[in-house]
Automatic annotation (TrEMBL):
This is Major facilitator superfamily (MFS) profile domain-containing protein. The keyword Transmembrane helix applies. It is found in: Membrane. It holds the Pfam family MFS_1. It is a multi-pass membrane protein. Belongs to the major facilitator superfamily. Spinster (TC 2.A.1.49) family. GO terms for molecular function: transmembrane transporter activity. It comes from Saponaria officinalis (Common soapwort). Residues 7-445 form the Major facilitator superfamily (MFS) profile domain.
Length: 494
């Protein structure tokens, strides 16, 4: 295989383990809560701690990815989250788990933007949506791996070690392995060793450059809109991914059935992401200014009725087939936004050198609010919809009473998750409408900037070639009049 193929393969495997690591803890919420005496609000706070640290570290991710080999950045991040995952497995108190998950966020933060920018750099406008669809599919394979691994072994033990701890050990070992493989075999196609042979700028000078780059990205109107919808749109999903396994078990499903149902959702999400990315590539030629935005509105809008059916419409007596079909359709329909709209548009509205920064900033802003999803669901379930913690000892209640409490608690969680979907996904769909006005203009501005940068680079190369000529201070530059007129006309309309 070519070095590029090996790199993309290893990067996708790293993405698989990144998603597997994220999905481990939600899959064993019930067992961790029972073992460490943590209520739903506390369980949601564990995700909050990790996400807050992760959000704060995205600027570091942008700095590392722009100035260092991105494959080495990915390898370092994988090693960091592996160490944090091992620490969770050894934790015996809520504080220890919280600190370990916070450290885990550092590793996850520096990996994700590098993976996304590598994919964007290796594709063009004709196949970028499909490439991001495949990235989402492989990432969802990791979510399936993490969910199945955690849920299936949660109720078991090995040599006296609880199953949920074993799950963290397994993912930690695999993460160390992929870290080594990425460091040794993967290559960054845009990493220029010669750049690092030259004298480096002072550290604070580089920091100022990163800040200026971030300001340039943040001022982009389309970026602001996509971040705004992401703030709303990722909120309910964080709550669902955190509490869905626990909710399914509370309403009567076994660990095995819960793992299967959640797997069907992720399978639907994977197929939907690939479908959305492919449709984006088709519509980008037929409806270049509106097609991909329409896809995202259909996808986000469909989440509201599907969530109502899943959480409120199905019978209290769980039928696996009904839940399986609903979860699969929900995953299929609501997974188009990232591969069809967000990620490809990010690659088009900024210069190529700013791609890592725009992906890092997007994840940073969205994760700040995204991290409050699980705690909010826990608070709503407990203090609004009547969730009651199960008695600590079996002697305090009969098995029948415990089952009734579990079902009531499951209904409380369902209502809490449904209200977050109804409010936030409606807002997400509405916010996307603003892109119809800003996206074409921002895309054209980025193209003009790329044209200017290319011309300036060519002028520099011509000047270097003419050193030693009779007139070394004179540089002849050829340019296209149509491009000049187009740029001047575009700037006059700003």
């Amino acid at each position: 295989m070519s070095p590029e193929t090996v790199t993309l393969l290893l990067v996708n495997i790293a993405g698989i383990l990144e998603r597997a690591d994220e999905s481990l803890l939600p899959g064993v919420y019930k067992e961790v809560g029972a073992a460490l005496n943590i209520d739903p609000t506390g369980l949601g706070s564990l995700t909050l701690f990790r996400s807050l640290v992760q959000s704060c570290c995205y600027p570091l991710a942008a700095y590392l990815a722009v100035r260092h080999d991105r494959t080495h950045v990915i390898a370092l991040g994988a090693l960091l989250w592996a160490v944090a995952t091992f620490l969770v497995a050894f934790s015996s108190t809520f504080l220890q788990v919280a600190v370990s998950r916070a450290l885990n966020g550092i590793g996850l933060a520096i990996v994700i933007p590098s993976i996304q920018s590598l994919v964007a750099d290796s594709t063009d406008d004709n196949n970028r949506g499909t490439a991001f669809g495949w990235l989402q599919l492989t990432g969802n394979m990791g979510a399936i791996l993490g969910s199945i691994c955690s849920v299936l072994v949660a109720s078991t033990s090995f040599l006296g070690i609880p199953g949920w701890r074993i799950a963290f050990h397994l993912v930690g070992l695999l993460s160390v392995l992929i870290s080594i493989l990425v460091w040794v075999f993967a290559t960054d196609p845009r990493f220029n060793e010669a750049r690092f042979e030259n004298p480096k700028n002072p550290f604070w000078s580089e920091i100022k450059e990163v800040i200026q780059e971030a300001k340039s990205v943040i001022k982009n109107p389309s970026f602001q809109i996509i971040v705004a919808q992401g703030v709303a749109g990722t909120f309910p999903w964080s709550g669902m991914f955190s509490f869905a396994p626990m909710w399914l078990e509370l309403i009567g499903f076994s660990h095995e059935t819960t793992a299967f149902l959640f797997t069907m959702y992720v399978v639907g999400n994977s197929i939907g992401g690939l479908f959305g990315g492919k449709m984006r590539d088709i519509l980008s030629t037929k409806l270049p200014n509106s097609g991909r935005i329409m896809l995202s509105q259909i996808s986000s809008g469909s989440a509201v009725p599907l969530a109502a059916i899943l959480f409120l419409g199905l019978s209290d007596d769980p039928s696996p087939s009904k839940y399986c079909l609903t979860l699969f359709v929900m995953g299929l329909m609501t997974s188009w936004n990232a591969p069809a709209t967000n990620n490809p548009i990010f690659a088009e509205i900024v210069p190529e050198k700013h791609r890592t920064s725009i992906y890092a900033l997007d994840r940073g802003f969205e994760s700040i609010v995204h991290s409050f999803g699980p705690p909010l669901v826990g608070i709503l379930a407990q203090h609004v919809y009547g969730y009651k913690p199960t008695p600590k000892s079996s002697s305090d209640s009969t098995e029948m009473t415990t089952t009734m409490i579990d079902r009531e608690n499951g209904a409380s969680l369902a209502k809490a998750m449904n209200i977050t979907f109804t409010v936030t996904m409606s807002a997400c769909c509405a916010i996307y409408s603003l892109l119809y006005c800003t996206y074409p203009r921002d895309r054209e501005r980025a193209r003009m900037q790329a044209l200017v940068d290319s011309e300036m680079l060519r002028m520099k190369d011509v000047g270097d070639d003419r050193q030693g000529d009779e007139y070394p201070g004179v540089v002849t530059v050829e340019h296209c009049k149509s491009d000049e007129k187009r740029l001047l006309a575009f700037e006059s309309n700003l």
